[in-house]
Design goal:
Blueprint lengths: L20 E6 L13 E5 L28 E6 L13 E8 L1 H7 L1 H7 L6 E2 L16 E2 L8
Helix pairs in contact: 1-2
Organism: Culex pipiens (House mosquito)
GO molecular function: serine-type endopeptidase activity
Pfam families: Trypsin
């Protein structure tokens, strides 16, 4: 399902496009026991219609250095916990800074000491809003100068 901004699939509305998946391509270094390479591409059986709610996104080239993103603002999305509810039915977004390894580790050594390694981006702030339970898998996106994501 593409274009859904509601967690309740019955309330998806006119923005939703439903698809069957024809193939799944897991990253060659993915393992279920770590946070490494937890990305996959899904091949759809039919073509998606690009519109306001469904857009392509660029993936970085293998040669690009993740450190070049440090200091940039990124957007993450999710249906996670809010101040007033265990989850949100409405898809929410949050702008967060991409931070370097040392800053990330210092923010919560107990958690990030086990999870951080080369190739993992860290984003967020110890002040203000943050991602929460239920936001996992939402992705982290940066906008390029040409308007692409």
């Amino acid at each position: 399902q593409l274009g859904s901004v509601r967690q309740n699939l019955l309330l998806g509305g006119s923005t939703v496009q439903n698809f069957a998946v024809s193939d799944v391509f897991l990253h060659e270094q993915f393992t279920e026991r770590s946070f490494q390479a937890d990305i996959a591409l899904l091949a759809l059986r039919t073509k998606a219609n690009v519109d306001e709610f469904v857009r392509p996104i660029c993936l970085p080239m293998k040669s690009e250095d993740a450190g070049q993103l440090t200091g940039r603002e990124a957007v993450t999305v999710g249906f996670g916990m809010t101040e007033s509810a265990p989850t949100s039915d409405q898809l929410r977004q949050l702008r967060v800074p991409i931070v370097d390894y040392v800053t990330c580790l210092a923010s919560n050594r107990e958690v990030f000491g086990r999870a951080l390694s080369a190739g993992i981006l860290c984003a967020g702030s110890t002040a203000g809003s943050t991602v929460c339970n239920g936001d996992s898998g939402g992705g982290l996106f940066t906008e390029e100068d040409d308007g692409s994501w």
